[in-house]
Write a structure and sequence with these properties.
Blueprint: E1 6-9, E2 15-17, E3 24-27, E4 32-33, E5 36-37, E6 47-49, E7 69-71, H1 74-80, E8 83-84, H2 90-103, H3 112-123, E9 134-137, E10 146-149, E11 152-157, E12 160-165, E13 168-169, E14 173-174, E15 180-183, H4 187-194
Amino acid sequence: MNAPARNRVTPLGEIEAMALRGAFTGNRGRLHRGREVVRFHAGDLWIICALQFNGRWNEQWLPHRFTWLYFHDEAVALAAGHRPCGECRHAAYTAYRDAWTSAVSAGVRPSARDMNRRLHAERLYRGTHRRRFHAERWANLPDGTFVLDDGTPHLVKGRTLVPWSQTGYGTPRRRPVRGEATLITPPASVAVLRAGYPVVIDQTVPQERS
């Protein structure tokens, strides 16, 4: 069995080699040389794509083409700083943009470039590849948000926090109700989630007990 390629993305945006399968693909430009990833990104266009679209087959590692990346689920992809593609995921892109219009840009419909620039400024410190984190009150976090807790990415789901690792989601625990969380998901995408964007979360996430 071949070893996993280094083309899977963590909630922190890092590109790793792991066996965990991806429910979505996407890219952030041309990052590879041969079969090796040599760049972290190649611009501010970071998108989430469908695994299949109009019968197209996405060949990996083509020279002079963008690098296909893979995400465990859409919540992971949003946490990493990506947004839905306007072509292969047009309905999701429209829903994301509409939620952005009401929750982020005060009723003004953003262009794709507007969203790209805002997300890029929120996910990385300017001029670096160093990840930015943001503070938000626990009570304000919608489902689908990722936070950094005890040094580990956790998914917010209902009243619980679900840890994420390179093998998938772990055992949930009760999330705090007071104080501030350390956001991994960029604040604009958190606002989109809060406005009702229907993020896709892996169905294997343990259900909250009543």
